[in-house]
Amino acid sequence: MKILVFNDYCIIGNIAMKANISVLSQNGHEVFGVPTKIFSSNMSYKDYISFCIPNFSEIVKKIFEIQKIDAIYIGFIDDEEIFEIIKDILQKFKGKVILDTILGDNGVKYSGTTNGQIDFYRELLKFADAVTPNLTEAILLTDYNKNFSEIEREDVEKIASNLLEMGAKQIIIKSFEKNNLLNTLYFSENTIKWFESEKVELKICGTGDVFSSLVTSELVKGEHLENSIQKIQTLLFDNIEKQEKYEGLNEIQLENFKIGE
């Protein structure tokens, strides 16, 4: 399948578009990545710099002239012009759309996240065949009025229901911690299903990007996502367990993410 990825590109760091291209390619897809922003490194590094690429619209137009795109993956957006270009594309697009909202984690917005970005993603929900927020991002998207530390399973299901009403067809909410386990909710019009996985205590950058890329691969292959989440979580956990860990910042290693192997 041919997948167009709109996401930020970090020159240093195995995250964002770098993770998308690696994981989707390993699973047999042809990937065309157009950066919505270029960062010198991920935001965990001090004094990073960033900029938008010129001629974004012209580049995307050329891709559609040359290739038939089967799916569009949307990650980081913080520029209104780029958002409007992507929204216009989605209004005409007939393939699958995957939305990976990049807004915050652990109950806190990322330092650069704006209300404008939250509004961008809210508008794109109606195009999404699947949306993959972590719990913090799902709360921000729905403006759910409860303290992060007090959230229970029934709250997560209400949040997912709100996202369904906002237009998303399938919702996968990650990173809900309970009893020292990570809980993931799959929610659609007809299905509510919970998945548990062991928690790795060390913070590993890029795991969310890998997870959403694997969801995208399964979706465009025609798999039922409620049947894919457990094997995705197992693959992620096994890879994280095997990789060498360091004090301080750790990044996901991208070598072995073909589903089924």
TrEMBL record:
Residues 55-243 form the Pyridoxamine kinase/Phosphomethylpyrimidine kinase domain. Signal peptide: none annotated. PANTHER family: HYDROXYMETHYLPYRIMIDINE_PHOSPHOMETHYLPYRIMIDINE KINASE THI20-RELATED, PHOSPHOMETHYLPYRIMIDINE KINASE. It comes from Parvimonas micra. GO terms for biological process: thiamine biosynthetic process. Pfam families: Phos_pyr_kin (PF08543). This is PfkB family carbohydrate kinase. GO terms for cellular component: cytosol. InterPro entries: PM/HMP-P_kinase-1, Ribokinase-like. One of its GO terms (molecular function) is hydroxymethylpyrimidine kinase activity. SUPFAM superfamilies: Ribokinase-like. It comes from the Bacteria. The keyword Transferase applies. Keywords: Kinase, Thiamine biosynthesis, Transferase.
